[in-house]
Design a protein that fits this description.
Strand content: 15-25%
Number of strands: 13
Bound molecules: nicotinamide-adenine-dinucleotide
Oligomer: single chain
Largest sheet: 7 strands, parallel
Strand order of the largest sheet: 3-2-1-4-5-6-11
Shape: globular
Length: 349
């Protein structure tokens, strides 16, 4: 199976590339613009593999996308390239609209043109997997979970741009018949996560004895999924998902942010007792504007239709993740020194 992965130098995309290349049976073309969030170091383990190649390109570049499709002749596309950080979308939404909305449009058009030129067997088997987020559904109250039919109600410029892209992907399926499948996933965590996000930021700040910022009172609830479980779900969805359908992906691991931060501190107290108790570094800071209270995913459809199951619980996954950051300074040190030093993002002036 020949797979184009967009955004393959990012957090989830690199997990997808490592998974596909390692499995065998897949030829992978990773297309990535290498924004601040793209990092080829995350692909070190596969960069020399015969079934992997990289193309530095912007998904908004229609000519480059067409060349990629014509040259590589994929059986499917896994579209992950996006601007992904909610805080950055609050202070600068333009890149989010440009990449997430316009970029998705350009990619859908390149895929459609290519798909229309395929013979009938190949055209029928072709898949375009559009990877999205549970944030498009907005915020939950204390009970209930998102299902695939939950109405869209995005709160942030990021989630609004993803919602727009989801609607484009659905429209290309309904209007043109392009075999699009979609996935909406909860918060991911794990190795190679850019250290602007809650979990890696907390781990690295704690390792450096720096304050651990927690938004508001840390009461917001997220449903955490280990990134390799997400990559596995995406491979199953692109291989066996039904065109025109969407699948929610989640690990059934709801946690309040403050409890996530406390658990990281406990693990570090064991691994780095010199800094204990790390919890004394917690600092409650002004909340993020438009901060959704709670997300929770009902993944029954994915589990019953495709037989997917998350392999990690939050307890096992977070322990692995903290250990990975402790052991892999080579990966995060250049990012902390040269790309992002941990300053607060996303406050409205
Ligand atoms: P990320 O920010 O780590 O990676 C995004 C990648 O896209 C980067 O490598 C970046 O260089 C690339 N990119 C950005 N703009 C591009 C452009 N114009 N052309 C080509 N490449 C471009 O993001 P992530 O966390 O890996 O998320 C991947 C996808 O999964 C996104 O679509 C995101 O919305 C979705 N998602 C993420 C989460 C999560 O918890 N991280 C949860 C659900 C869904």
């Amino acid at each position: 199976m020949r797979v184009i992965v967009t955004g393959g130098a990012g957090f989830i995309g690199s997990a997808v590339c490592r998974d596909l290349v390692g499995h065998g049976g897949f030829e992978v073309l990773n297309i990535d613009k290498l924004t601040y969030a793209g990092n080829l170091a995350s692909l070190k383990s596969v960069e020399g593999a015969a079934n992997y190649r990289f193309m530095k390109a912007d998904i908004r570049d229609a000519e480059a996308m067409w060349e990629a499709f014509e040259g590589f002749r994929p059986d499917c596309v896994m579209h992950l390239a996006a601007e992904s950080h909610v805080d950055r979308s609050i202070t600068g939404a333009r890149e989010f609209i440009d990449t997430n909305v316009t970029g998705t449009f350009v990619l859908l058009e390149a895929a459609r043109r290519y798909w229309m030129g395929l013979g009938s067997d190949k055209a029928e088997a072709f898949r375009f997997l559009h990877v999205s987020t549970d944030e498009v559904y907005g915020s939950l109250g204390e009970t209930g979970r998102f299902v695939e039919t939950t109405p869209y109600d995005p709160s942030s410029p990021y989630s609004a741009s993803k919602a727009a892209a989801d609607h484009l992907a659905s429209a290309w399926q309904r209007t043109y018949g392009l075999p699009v499948v979609m996935s909406n996933c909860s918060n991911n965590y794990g190795p190679f996560h850019f250290p602007e996000k809650l979990i890696p930021l907390t781990i690295l700040n704690a390792l450096h004895g720096k304050a651990l910022p927690v938004y508001g009172q840390g009461e917001n609830v997220r449903d955490w999924l280990y990134v390799e479980d997400h990559a596995d779900a995406l491979v199953q969805i692109v291989s066996r998902g039904r065109p025109g359908e969407k699948y929610n992906v989640g690990g059934g691991n709801e946690r309040r942010n403050i409890d996530v931060v406390r658990r990281i501190c406990e693990i570090l107290d064991d691994l780095r007792p010199d800094g204990a108790p790390h919890e004394q570094l917690v600092e409650f800071v002004d909340d993020r504007p438009g901060h959704d209270a709670r997300y929770a995913i009902d993944a029954t459809k994915l589990e019953s239709e495709l037989g997917w199951r998350a392999g990690e619980t939050f307890e096992t996954g977070i322990e692995k993740t903290v250990r990975w950051y402790v052991d892999n300074e080579w990966w995060w040190r250049p990012l902390r020194e040269q790309v992002y030093r941990g300053e607060r993002l996303g406050l409205v002036a």
